[in-house]
Structure formats: C-alpha cells, structure tokens
Design goal:
Cytochrome Bc1 Complex, Chain A, domain 1, seven-stranded mixed beta sheet, 18% strand
C-alpha cells in the first residue's frame, strides 16, 4: 500500500475511550474480557445508493465537531496489465491536479485554507481518498471531491510532472531501498500469474511510457460513481448531508462496469528461491507463504499467529533469533488481508557477522515447532488482546471509523462485517493456530529472497 502523505498516530492511552463506531463501549471491551454478548446486527448508519450507482454510507458522530469524508474506488494494482503497471497509484496523484471547477493544485490549497487535511492511498485491491475537516465546511469538501469524480482535467503538463514525482517515489521506496527491493523481488517470485506479482508503484519501464490517453481511459473505466463508495462520518445532520450528496453527485454519469480480475494464481508445487545482490550493511532473508483471501476463516487464525510470532519482545521470533541465539537485529511477520489469496511473510535482518542462512534455519524451526506442538494458552490470550487493542485503536477517530467502513465494504461487500470480527477472533483456538501453521507453512508453499550484501 502506498500512502502519499504521512499521518500522525494516536496514543494508545486513548484506547479506553474507544467506541466501535456506534457500538456501545461494553461491546468494544468484550473482546478483551472474553464475554459472549451478542453484537448488533447492523451499524447505525444510513445507506443509500444513487441512481448512478454511487453507494453512500453516512454515520453521525457528534463527539467532536469534525467530519471525515472518504471515497473508495474499487481499483488497485490488480486491475492493471503489463505496460501500465503503476497507473492506479499514478491516478491517485493526478486526482489532486485539477478538475473542471477547481484547477491544478487548488484542491489542497482550498481545503487547507479552510483548516482541512487530505490524503490518499493505493493498494492491490483499492484506492482511497479522504479529507478531515471542521463540520462547517462539509459542502465545500463534497463539492471538491465530486468535481474530480466528474471532470478530472488530466492536463498534459501535469501528467508529465506528476509522473516524474511517481518515478522519484519509486526510486526512493524500491530502487534505493533494500527492503523495498526485497519485497518487490518476493512478489515477482511468489506470483507467476496473478497481478499481485507486480508492485503497486509499478515497473519503471511502464511508468516511463504511460500516456495521457492511458490515464483518460483508466479514469473513465474505474473512477465512475458506480465503482465507488462514499463514506461520511462525524458531526453532521444526515438529512442535510444526503441532500448535499444528491446536489453534487447526481449528475455524474455511470460508466460501463469494469470486468473482474479473472486470473487465479495456480498452486505452488515447490520452493522458489532468489538472491538479491545489493549494497547493504547486513544480510537479510524474506520468506513468503501463500495464504487464502480475506473471506477465509483461516485468516483470523493466521492473524493471531502473526502476533504470536512477532509482536513484542516475548514473541517467538524475537525471543529466539534476537535474544536467545543473537543472530538477528530484527524479525517480523505479517499476514496480509487481500481480496485474492495473498502472502504470509517473515522478514529477518541478520547481525552483520551472521548469515541469512542461520536466520532462515531458525525461522523454520520455530514454524515447525508451532505446526507440531501448537502455542501456549498464554500466547493465545496475549495475541487476542493485541489483536483487539490494534483493531479498536484504529477506530478511535471519525477518520478511522470511515476508513474501516470503506475497507470492509470493499473486502466483503458489506461493511457490517466489522461487527463479526470480535466473534471470529474469539473463536480462534490454539488448535486452529497449530492447524494453519501446518497447512500453510509447508516447504513447497514458500518463496525465499536472500539479501547478499555488497559493498
């Protein structure tokens, strides 16, 4: 995922104030406490789909006089093709570079002059745009966003200049980054068919040749109201907000819906390996295992497992590789949530006087032990508490609530799936964690990238 502007993180101390969207605080605390209270069937939101297909989700929250407005588009790097990789992320940049009413660079200037802030991100599965602002400028922000959905200018001058910015971003994040280069290599190694194999930022050769005509066609295909979700959360009146939505979005025409991604990644039938020779101070190894998509129940056990492996100094990877063996300075794990089957990754950075092979062997020993013997009750309880803390912390602000709603709407087709998360995590047992470790951490299912440091 690529985020264009940095965002401040909220303190964990505020977690005690978390309310899961409109769910009572007692419900939010239940995940930690292990209670079994039934969750509400639906969130307290107003949902309306306009005639042009735009889905609108409105949720009032009057705790503070601010609003967060998000637009999610069902488009990401998986919707690209060879020759235009990176165009989704490029279009994210272009959405801030002028439209029919508000000209180049005016979006942020006008928003910020009214005390607002904007940002955006692109991932494999979606692109999201948001503004955070005071309650009294809701109409202005709706006007700004509808303008670029309706009539993005794609001025040739800014197509060229913004592509230069994107190429520099690629140089910084991938070409001149050891970690970025390793993850790019892993994607190309693990995926032989599916579009997840190319980077969200795109291949440099494609970025150098994408044309304005490519951008116009992509915009008309994917940036249509019937391919978008509008979410507004915060201090507003629902009736007035929906009137504004109709005023500014109703006349934007729907487009022919884009077709689905058809390619399915075939089963991996043997270990794949690659070496990356790059200037670096220490060896490293990056291991990826294929795991199922976000709609699989196994994803929750895998999520718990990533916390057991890498969250905190008592985690399996840190305890073994960093503290006990003293062969690594960092060891982490991540279970990806994606619309299509994704990867569970283990990332280890060795000490300068140690080898990547030593680290790799130690990782396999840890994974094999979990697959054979499982995890302890204490590890399971701690991981569930950490999952809960991170999930609810992400919902502290109106921005966090709106983003979660949009993300779940993209992933599941129904944002009310948020309410089922607590029960799904609570249902994970030690046997489930043991089972998924044995199922997915098989040698034939892994791809390995080893960093060979060069001076």
């Amino acid at each position: 995922m690529h985020l264009c502007k940095s965002r401040a993180r909220r303190s964990l101390a505020a977690l005690a104030l978390v309310v899961l969207v409109s769910v009572p605080l007692a419900y939010a605390g239940a995940l930690n406490a292990g209670e079994t209270k039934a969750a509400p069937a639906k969130l307290a939101a107003t949902v309306e789909t306009l005639k042009n297909g735009l889905k609108v989700i409105l949720m009032e929250d009057h705790s503070v006089p601010v609003i967060s407005r998000w637009t999610f588009y069902r488009v990401g790097s998986e919707n690209e093709r060879p020759g235009i990789t990176g165009i989704s992320h490029f279009m994210e940049h272009m959405m801030f570079n002028g439209a029919g009413t508000y000209g180049p660079k005016e979006f942020d200037r006008i928003l910020e002059s009214n005390g607002g802030y904007s940002n955006a991100f692109t991932s494999e599965d979606m692109t999201g745009y948001y503004e955070d602002f005071a309650s009294n400028v809701l109409e202005l922000c709706i006007d700004l966003d509808s303008d670029r959905m309706k009539s993005l200018a794609l001025d040739p001058k800014y197509v060229v200049s913004e592509m230069d910015v994107v190429k520099e971003e690629r140089r910084m994040r991938t070409d001149n980054s050891v970690e970025g280069a390793m993850y790019e290599e892993l994607g190309a190694l693990a995926y032989k068919a599916h579009p997840y194999g190319w980077p969200v930022i795109g291949w440099m050769s494609d970025l150098e040749k994408i044309t304005r005509d490519d951008a116009v066609k992509y915009y008309k295909t994917y940036y249509a109201p019937n391919n978008a979700i509008l979410i507004i959360v915060g201090d507003f009146d629902t009736k007035k907000a929906i009137e504004l939505v109709h005023k500014y979005y109703d006349d934007i025409p729907a487009q022919t819906p884009p077709g689905p991604v058809r390619t399915v990644e075939p089963e991996q039938l043997g270990e794949r390996r690659a070496e990356l020779h790059k200037a670096a101070e220490m060896p490293a190894v990056l291991i990826g295992y294929h795991i199922p998509d976000v709609k699989s129940n196994d994803i929750y056990a895998l999520d718990v497992l990533q916390y057991v492996l890498s969250e905190g100094e008592s985690s399996r990877l840190y305890r073994k590789l960093v503290r006990d063996l003293g062969i690594a300075v960092y060891a982490g794990a991540n279970a990806s949530w994606n619309i299509a089957p994704a990867l569970f990754t283990v990332d280890v950075k060795a000490k300068p006087d140690k080898t990547a092979a030593e680290c790799e062997t130690a990782v396999y020993g840890i994974l094999a032990d979990i697959a054979a013997n499982g995890i302890t009750p204490a590890e399971l309880a701690k991981a569930k508490n950490q999952v809960a803390a991170n999930f609810y912390r992400s919902m502290q602000t109106v921005n966090g609530k709106a983003r979660k709603i949009g993300t779940y709407e993209i992933y599941f087709g129904d944002f009310n799936e948020i309410l089922k998360v607590r029960d799904r995590y609570q249902a994970v047992t030690a046997d489930d964690v043991k089972r998924v470790a044995g199922k997915y951490f098989a040698p034939k299912n892994r791809s390995v990238v080893t960093l060979v440091p060069e001076a």
